[in-house]
Amino acid sequence: AAARGAEWRHVVRLHVLGEVYMRSAVHVFARTLLSLAFIVLGWDAAREPGGRVKVVAALGIPRPDLAVRANGSLMVASGAMLLLGIRPRAAALTLVALMVPTTLAGHPFWQVNDPQQRKGQRIHFLKNLSMIGGLLFVALSGDRHDTACSSSRRR
To answer: pLDDT tens across 79-93, in order?
Structure first.
C-alpha cells in the first residue's frame, strides 16, 4: 500500500509539473502575441510619425512630432519589456496609460460622418479596447516569473 501511495504521488507530481510547463508556455506565447503590435507599430510611429503629428497638433499638444515619437518609443520599450517578461505588470500598465489617450485621440469614430471611415475608426477603437483589456489582464497577473521551475517552487 505504501508503494502504491508513493507511485500515485509521483504521477500527481508529474501531472502538476506538466501543467505548470504548459501554463508557462501559453503565458509566454500570449505575452508575445500581445506585445508584437506595440513593438512594430510603436517603431513605425517613432521612426516616421506621419499623419499622427497632425492629429496630435489638433489636440493642442506642444511639439507634436516629439510627442508622437516619444509615445512610439515608449510603446516599443514597454512592448519589449512585456515580450521578455521584464516587469510585465509595469510594462502593461504603461501601455494602458499610452493606449487610452491614443485610442481616444486617434480613433474618434463618433466624430466621423462618412459611413465607411466611421466603420474603420470604430473597428480600430474596439481593437484598441481589446488590447487594453489584455494588458489589464497581464497587469492583474503580476510580476510572476514564467518558468516552470519558479512556478513549481512557489507551490
So the answer is: 999 999 999 999 999
